[in-house]
Amino acid sequence: MEIATFLARRWSENDSMTVQIPERMSETKTRLSDNLIVIAPPGRRTGDGFQRYRQFRTALWYESTRALHCTKILSNDHAFGFILNAMETCRIEHMGRKVWRGMDNEIVMYHAHMLVERPQLHEVYGRARIVEAFYQQLLFGAVKGELQASHAERVTRAAEFARGVISEAVSGGRGTDWVEGHTSRIVKMLDIDSLMTIPVSLPFMRAGMALDEKEMLKVLKIVLQHDKRSGLAENARDASSILRGSEDIHGEYTMLLEENQRAENKGLASEPIGIQTPAGAEGADESAIYDAALINGLKAKFKEWKSGWSEAHVASAGEEFDGESYIEGHDPFVTDVKKSIKTRITILLDHSSSIASNAREYKKATLALCEVLSFLRVSFSVYAFSTQERSVVCWSIKPEAAKWNTSAAKRLARIVANGSTPLAEVYDKMYPILQARRPDIFLTLTDGEPSDPDAVREMITGLKGLGTGMVALGLGPNITRATAIASNLRRLGYERTVAVSRLADIPNKVMGILEA
Fold first, then answer.
1. pTM (whole model) above 0.70
2. Which residue segments constitute the domains of the chain, with CATH numbers given?
3. What is residue 448's predicted lDDT score, i.e. its pLDDT?
């Protein structure tokens, strides 16, 4: 955020410019009146980490340059605004390069990724296909797919006319209003309705996937040839050099990786032997286990619980109640009580092979639980166990000293369900943590019976001696099986057992345990 804000203000020549980077947003837009750039994060883009950062950085350059040189930005929802914005993109490319000559390679790289992400023409229906073909022809000098001959001729003529308008605007110092005055001519040339709805193109649909290098080089060569003809790549190198990127930007990216790693490790102290942090978690996609509806519903429910107030809409009947008159003759009858949960809880998640078929839903429920606990400012830590290379591993997802954030969610998403349920061995690995932290509750979420019940009973007895309440939540495919699992867990010596047959009920059950 700090780097993005610094660059945006430098490129836009506006010290009031601010940047927002919503985690789960794919659309990039600039609000001139608010001095605001809203840009999709690098993780939503395609390619490896460095390619994603380069795209993010170049997209920020475009929006900053747009904020500097454009007087209006219309909606892309309709043909007129879509065409004007496309022409303005080309104009600001030329204007921006007059100052930032070193952006040539990044522009070519960005164009290549944009072309890859644009839809095939056969995927666009109706006359919107003509507008999409015009956009691709204007920006990239090539189209993805085929058009019927009469439409292709219109698109070619319109693109050539648009390039002439853009060239004259750049050389004559013309602005947005002048370009807008020629947009109607292009609409007529394409033989379309200026208010025609343009379907949203969804870039980043393959976010996180590394593009094949040979295919990327082929696209780069196509785009490079066009950009050199249009004067946008005078200082650009060959396709292979462009794909590698400059050392300066790579150094910037490396520095940000190091800063990000330090931020992720904040609060992550060295764990005891046998406790590991999931490797490669920074590349995991946590969006697959992020259920916004479940999380928001739970937050709303517990917000009411926390304040003691709830809103209800009911039909009224009887005489009108005068609240002010009542209060004058009575003591206050409304008291605002802020509830809070002071209980410190450690959660252990069973990631044995038996949950593999429901692993995504299981993680969604767990992530929702952690979001609510963080929302209520409960002190909690989260661990999980699974089998890796024939040995059980206890994974650290969120230590107590660390905050619940995207990095913790990525660590949860990274774990693969595998192996049996050796609870006694896992408890033994976690004993040093529990002995040092002494949480009020140690909650185990499991959907199977432990491998060695006698050893588990012995470990539970020892953990109770630390003053920690031992609680288990059993997960079953149906009510009958869940109840049976809870009964088995109770016989192991847990102080309290709860059963659920629906994974979405996990957060509510856990919150019930904390409230008790």
1. no
2. 2-254 (no CATH), 345-515 (3.40.50.410)
3. 67
